[in-house]
Amino acid sequence: MVRAGSLSNHGRPQPRRPTMADVAREAGVALRTVSRFVNGDATVGEDFADRIRRAIETLDWQPDERARQLRSGRTRTIGAAVRNISDAHPVLRAVDESARAAGLTVVAMSTEDDEEREREAVVSMCRRRMDGIIIEPIAENHGYLQPEIDSGMPVVAFDRPATGVEVDTVLSDNRGGIALAFEHLVRQGHRRIGYIGDDERIYTGHERAVAFHECLRAHCSAATGMVHPGPIDPARIAAALNRLRSDPEPATAILTGNASTTVAVIRQLGGDFGSIALVGFDDFALADLLRPGLTVVAQGEAEIGRTAIDLFQARAADPSRPVQTVTVPTTLIPRGSGELAP
Amino acid sequence: MVRAGSLSNHGRPQPRRPTMADVAREAGVALRTVSRFVNGDATVGEDFADRIRRAIETLDWQPDERARQLRSGRTRTIGAAVRNISDAHPVLRAVDESARAAGLTVVAMSTEDDEEREREAVVSMCRRRMDGIIIEPIAENHGYLQPEIDSGMPVVAFDRPATGVEVDTVLSDNRGGIALAFEHLVRQGHRRIGYIGDDERIYTGHERAVAFHECLRAHCSAATGMVHPGPIDPARIAAALNRLRSDPEPATAILTGNASTTVAVIRQLGGDFGSIALVGFDDFALADLLRPGLTVVAQGEAEIGRTAIDLFQARAADPSRPVQTVTVPTTLIPRGSGELAP
DNA sequence: GTGAAAGCGCTAACAT
DNA sequence: ATGTTAGCGCTTTCAC
């Protein structure tokens, strides 16, 4: 039922939104004066300012960002192409907060770890003429970004490097993180440590697996390790886990290469979680609620996000500056699962 | 170091991005013809189409969304003002997917549960002249939305109703959900059931607390209940929990009013989790990994998101249609914690 | 089907 | 300090 209450305007012909010209007319000043007042370009006579203020109030005028952006050439907006905007994403949070502080709006789009979606997101950002792009790269090759970069679009990659183009990049210290975890387990007395990680074709999967091998070499007199990298899939995780535990000399500790793998392993261990030491790469919400609490290598997501914005700003300010890659350290957070004796 | 490689264009003066006029010139056709070809407004001669395609390719032209939106008056974009875009948000995901399917782009902004931030987000959406707004309301009063609604902006609220304005709304069946949980516990034989929930000044906190009271009345011969609603704060949770357990006839089961409270309670119970039956309102990631698994009342987030987009579309198609509120059912997911005997 | 002109709402250059 | 004029890049009349 439609009522003709004062609360509702439904059904009435929609009044055209007021424009800056309407404000100027209402205030009895020139359009340009309104613009100057609104943008603070120059000081405006106090009486004029008052009339403009009142006119804006009366008409309930709001500037049209589209027109403003079109005319001025800048959007004060940067795009963030991330895996999934609907999942928890501490980096995105930091990007958003840092950008806000700099007076920039962040528009985030999901890539769903899909090359096609990533390109769609980037294209959409370019068509909106955003001032820059922050990307968590998924595509095999980012050559498609080259024309955009050449036409002056600042691009910053994080988490993984973008391949085929030279862009500013923020990465976690993947190798250092694995070393932290490995040495922690060695210190607890573990000598047979297994690794289950992500597909090695993925950058972080590769880095972490390589780092694990390096750790094995460095500690070779003490530790024997097993690596089972590959796609994250329950069956594969189960198989890897089985091999690690059914070995004549079974693993006494497991290192997992990312949060999804960690969760999959815990799920697989079921009631046996806590019977074998476990350290996961990546912290996640509620990891402390598990019994035992999950020991993890935490990435510096907040710093990664902040750095991404810093790099964007530096690039925007000086397009000719050399491309830079920043590595953000990781930290070990002991919560119990990594402190179990062999 | 700046190198003059073919990969990099840094330092060169930025070539102006090509415009549609450039494409027209390159193709040797009128501007209007390019526009028609690009938008499929009308059929364009095949030879012309070819030349335009080639010209677009050559110049690597991409339409300027700002100009297009300014001129056409529509943005094909809707804003989503949600608590936090960086936390997991299943509703936002569904909103995004549904909108994509309808050819709309969703721009999500965080309100951080802050009135000021909510208004900032809404203002930003209006200034961008988005086609509609999906909002998870936090403000005490949403009267400030009225002018926008009057000027034809479709607004859809979800999770909580917007106060002071009449807008299409999607809500969870909060009362039904509490009843589901309560009756489940009664069926397990519990007769003393405690409730710890959110601040009653918050809509969902209120609804769920009221529903709990109704359940108590309906089962009064069987169950005695305790309610301890208030802000989510570890000390308060601890106190509430203490009272429930130190009663002469202590509670044998607890019902929590939302995910944050559930997590706070589990954290507080520590090793005692599993010694008392617990059902939480709201499902969350990893709830199944706890020992025992957490029994929850799950909201239909995907349906809420889809419905929000449906309501938006209906409103956009017919601004005079009556305002509608849709209630989405909840489901009980037993995982162990709610199936413990008294 | 195609083309010329107007204009979306605003800011940037010049006047004054 | 204020007003006038142009024009951002596109879509939309309206002629042909």
List the helices and strands and how they pair.
Two copies of one chain form a homodimer.
Chain A: H1 20-27, H2 31-39, H3 46-59, H4 65-72, E1 77-82, H5 90-101, E2 105-110, H6 115-127, E3 132-135, H7 146-150, E4 155-158, E5 168-172, H8 174-187, E6 192-197, H9 203-218, E7 224-229, H10 234-246, E8 253-256, H11 259-269, E9 277-281, E10 295-299, H12 301-317, E11 325-328, E12 330-333
Parallel strand pairs in A: 1-2, 1-3, 3-4, 4-5, 5-11, 6-7, 6-8, 8-9, 9-10
Antiparallel strand pairs in A: 10-12
Helix pairs in contact in A: 1-2, 1-3, 5-12, 8-9, 10-11
The first copy, chain A, binds a DNA duplex (16 and 16 nucleotides) through helix 2 and helix 4.
Pfam families (chains A, B): LacI (PF00356), Peripla_BP_3 (PF13377)
Keywords (chains A, B): DNA-binding, Transcription, Transcription regulation
InterPro entries (chains A, B): HTH_LacI, LacI/GalR-like_sensor, Lambda_DNA-bd_dom_sf, Peripla_BP_I
